[in-house]
Amino acid sequence: MSKHYRTGLVVGKFSPLHSGHRYLIDTATAACDQLLILSYSRPEFAGCTSALRQQWLNDGWPQHQCVVLDAAQACRLGLVMPDNNASDLQQRQFCAELIDRTFGQPIDVVFSSEDYGQGFADHLAQHWQRPVASVLLDRDRIRHPVSGTALRAAPSARWQTTDVLTTQRCQRIALIGAESTGKTSLGLWLAQQRGWHWVAEFGRQHWEDCGGVLSSDDLLTIARTQVELEDKAVALASSEGHSAVICDTTPLTTLIYHQMMFPEPPPAELIALAERPYHQLWLCAADFPMVQDGTRSPEAFRQQQQALYESELTNRQLDTLRLSGPLEQRRAQLLRNVSAD
Asked: Which CATH number applies to 5-161?
């Protein structure tokens, strides 16, 4: 490009990052003194979490400011992230506010490979009361005939770098269910069988540290920390060449505990954390007698909790695998459905 700009912007899901994105960002890099790269998605996609996208972008363009968010991280900034299918106006308003809070200066030019670019630039120009240019690149995908949708379904070394492929393919397999449904013992056993890392439930440790009394803020801390532990496990597993990690719980479990423990609505960030996607989500049935270890609630609580899982999973339309029957039957179900490295 012959024209040079002071500040530029590239926005995308980057789910996953591929060669078309790299062409767009590299072109913008050559044309700008400073480049802001924004990435957000609601919902997120398994294998393309905000932590992974942040890593991909930081590794590729460490000289740029890369702002990568999920819905929970947006809450921490005081913003409400729109759904992916929200209107253009909602997306533009969100981006303008996000730029103001993270970049702190107007943008001179928007780079895109889709038709939204000009309207987006016009909105930013009105927002800042100054001109914002639009540069459209490879609109018809001639240089890079690929899409994130296609690569989520079938990752490809032709369009993705090795580091992106490796981390995208590392699956997070989670077991959920009411108390005393075997999820912890089954998850730990499966991790040992496959030689994978197991992400323990932070909530139990935190409950013990708090003397068995938890506040609403404690549950938010639990969900945040559980996500951090998962992200660390995926990074370690990917570096070791493993194809999955086993998660003893999910933030959805923490949200359900909040619904049962407190009359007030859960924090918006906890609701957003509970949207976190998994490659496989196993619901353990409460179909055998509860084992009371001295810390668990009565059987009525367990059945109420299980009913909430069923309701939440149905309302969210999540693809869920189910474990039922005796322990050996559940183990056999897992081995049949969870492939080894």
From this structure: 3.40.50.620
